[in-house]
Design goal:
Shape: globular
CATH class of the largest domain: Alpha Beta
Number of strands: 20
Mean pLDDT: 91
Number of helices: 19
Number of domains: 2
Helix content: 25-40%
Low-confidence stretches: 1-46, 554-561
Distance between the termini: 32 Å
Largest sheet: 9 strands, mixed
Length: 561
């Protein structure tokens, strides 16, 4: 069976994707058969002996196993860091018994898209509390092309300091490009620079990264050609990784951007994952349906393509990435200041900002999340600042940029598109946020509320999707994207990443006006068998582990970029 598993997971074996998928079915069948024969699927020892005592027994709950199946009444037992019982407990002793009557028991949620690269290392936020209160047990860092390039060092720091969640990491293409190319980015890399990027990526993959990410609206990734990305993604493919991308456009160029992502996956023989899938700005509304059709067609051809989404109509990023044209963002902060004051570029830039406001529906659609030089503006829209200061909206923007810039929340999507995307079976739930503690900023509420909003509001309350669908989108689907076979479902032998929540109370409390509000409804949360939420209260335990690419063996020969 072990050989069968490795044959399916391996690359370059000359077999078709459909052939490898057939092997996966065989593996699953062998596993289930073995479990039925031994009784291990239900927690029995198989030899008639008395099972060892459980550390935790969760009784009376409705178990959603994460696969998309409806909930069933069952007990769940945990011993050490594993689930050892699913079914009915027949008298097995337990150190702690949790009555989950009226509650849902399911796998801990897996967030494929966070920007917690620094917060998960920081003393105040490494417990991941703003995510633990959502039910999250695993996060992925290195998204949108930015983050830690030295994967081995990052993993060492996570392990050394401890974390409240399991952590997987993507090699960030933009940061790799920055390291390899110095300060000159608006050009193709030299042969030596491309070789260096491939070498850095290979080192990150050997250290256990689960793939590579790109951020193709950000400097320096925006200057990368499709050919450059393919050349690096081939290294990722050689190491059985995924290609995750912040598309080159999420607005009117969405379809072209999706086609580019699919081309990269095809040419590099690499699974493709589209981050925060959406159609942004009113002129693009509705295009997401055509974008989904492109993905579904590719999947119909046997290509591995998935996506993730946060369930909000607003996005969040830097002010300059939101409103400035590409030509204005090139270079350093000093270059931008020079353009603002230039007699020719300055008026041109103001006109571009005015046009951006028109495209986005007005200056009232952009809200300041964090502006260090004038915190009183945090939470105010550009229009509100205009009303208070008398400055035109474009001048407000340029004034903020002169003083170091700001992060913003942009209300740029429509509810119909959000609901359409979340109903697709290839779309996982992910926050695009980061671990936070309350401070003076006014960030996007997604860092506190993504998963309860999807499961509690959209599924349980509004019935936009079923509970089973919503839970799968946060558990077994992201686990499959990452290649995890030991997390993401409730089954004997799985790591004990388990959440117990009250569906009547699971709600996002964070709003755009009051974003630093912890979600409600999670009563128990276990990460590798250790409670990080106990009886509704955080324990601040740090039982998370580094999750290295599960598709790889423990050791690999040096890559040949």
């Amino acid at each position: 069976m072990k050989n069968c598993i490795w044959r399916w997971a391996g690359r370059g074996d000359g077999r078709s994707r459909s052939g490898r998928a057939a092997d996966l079915v065989l593996v699953a069948a062998q596993f289930i058969l073995a479990g039925l024969i031994t009784g291990s699927l239900w927690g029995a020892d198989g030899d008639g002996s008395t099972p060892a005592p459980l550390d935790v027994l969760i009784t009376g709950g409705t178990v959603y196993d994460g696969t998309g199946a409806d909930g069933v009444s069952a007990d769940v037992g945990i011993a050490g860091d594993r689930i050892t019982l699913v079914g009915r407990n027949s008298g097995q002793a337990a150190q702690r018994t949790i009555d989950a009557t009226g509650k849902i028991v399911c796998p801990g949620f897996i967030d494929l898209h966070t920007h917690s690269d620094e917060p998960i290392l920081a003393e105040k936020t490494r417990d991941n509390l703003s995510y633990a209160t959502q039910g999250c047990t695993t996060i992925v860092t290195g998204n949108c092309g930015g983050g830690h390039v030295d994967v081995a060092d990052f993993f060492h720091k996570v392990e050394q300091g401890g974390s409240g969640a399991n952590v997987a990491h993507l090699v960030p293409h933009g940061s790799v490009r920055q390291r390899a190319m110095g300060g000159s980015y608006n050009r193709p890399p030299t042969a030596e620079e491309l070789r260096r990027m491939r070498e850095i990526t290979a080192a990150g993959m050997r250290a256990g990264a689960i793939g590579m990410s790109t951020g193709l609206i950000y400097i320096p990734g925006m200057y990368a050609t499709t050919d450059e990305i393919v050349a690096i993604a081939k290294i990722v493919s050689d190491h059985s990784g995924i290609y995750a991308t912040h598309l080159r456009s999420e607005s009117t160029g969405l379809l072209t951007a999706v086609q580019e992502a699919l081309e990269i996956g095809q040419r590099a023989a690499c699974p493709v994952h589209i981050s925060h899938f959406k159609a942004s700005t009113p002129p693009a509304w509705g295009k997401v349906k055509d974008a989904c059709a492109l993905v579904e067609t590719a999947r119909g051809r046997g290509e591995q393509v998935t996506a993730d989404q946060y369930p909000y109509i607003a996005s969040s990023t830097s002010l300059n990435a939101t409103l400035l044209p590409d030509w204005a963002r090139e270079g350093t902060a000093k270059d931008l200041l020079r353009r603002i004051e230039d007699p020719a570029d300055g008026p041109k830039l103001r006109g571009a900002v005015d046009q951006a406001f028109a495209t986005r529906g007005g200056a009232d659609k952009i809200q300041i999340a964090s502006f260090a030089k004038q915190p009183a503006w945090n939470g105010m829209t550009i229009q509100a600042i205009t009303n208070a200061t008398g400055q035109p909206p474009a001048d407000v923007v340029l004034d903020i940029l002169r003083r170091g810039g700001a992060s913003v929340v942009s209300f740029s999507m429509c509810e119909e598109d959000v609901e359409y995307v979340m109903q697709r079976d290839f779309v996982a739930t992910a926050s695009d946020g980061s671990s936070k503690r309350p401070d003076g900023s006014m960030p996007h509420p997604r860092s506190y509320g993504t998963f309860p909003r999807k499961i509690g509001r959209y599924a349980y309350e509004r019935k936009v999707v079923s509970l089973a669908h919503a839970i799968r989108s946060a558990t077994s689907l992201p686990a499959a994207v990452l290649g995890m076979t030991d997390r993401g479902t409730i089954a004997v032998g799985q790591f004990a990443d388990v959440v117990v929540f009250d569906p009547r109370q699971l709600r996002d409390a964070a709003t755009f006006e009051r974003p630093h509000q912890y979600s409600t409804g999670v009563e128990w949360l276990f990460v590798n068998g250790v409670a990080t939420i106990a009886a509704g209260q955080p324990t601040h335990a740090l039982p998370g582990r580094v999750v290295r690419n599960p598709r790889l063996p423990h050791t690999l020969p040096a890559a040949q970029p």
